[in-house]
Amino acid sequence: MVTHVPSEAHGDERGALLAFVEAQRGAVRRSVLGLDEERAASRPTAGALSLSGLVKHLAEGELNWLRMAQQRPNEKRRTEGTWADSFQLVGDETVPQMLEFWSEVAAETEAFVRGVDSLDETFPLPEAPWFPKGARCSMRWLLLHLVEEFARHAGHADIVRESLDGRTAFELVAEEAGYAGRS
Question: What is the pTM of this model?
């Protein structure tokens, strides 16, 4: 991992998990640092991923998991026909708008998770071919899944960004922290 995730108070599992989720969000957010809309939307590798598309996909994905945990309808639910739009900006969507949206979702996720009585609380998973019938998962599992999903895509973002301009995650961390250009 490129950044140090600060320790929470001894035994604060909830705080530690939320900190690791945020660290992985930060890795993806930094991937668009200093890019204009065109560069952020470009696809420099053989795959179809763009940095702006990854930001949007993860923001919408986190919202989807949050709504499942809250047992509320997802206002940005995708269908088979709109699934591809979750990986690209469409219409007048911009990177700053997607980053702001993701920040709002992240704040809502943190408030929700901090408000549950226990990380052992569960919620039902919807019927889908990729979930076991009648499955439930815990809030702990949800946070671990977000770490896993964000980390997987942070790796994709690293590759895409290096393919665009050679900038590495280490350089982007330094720039964000105000160390860019220092010897």
Answer: 0.93
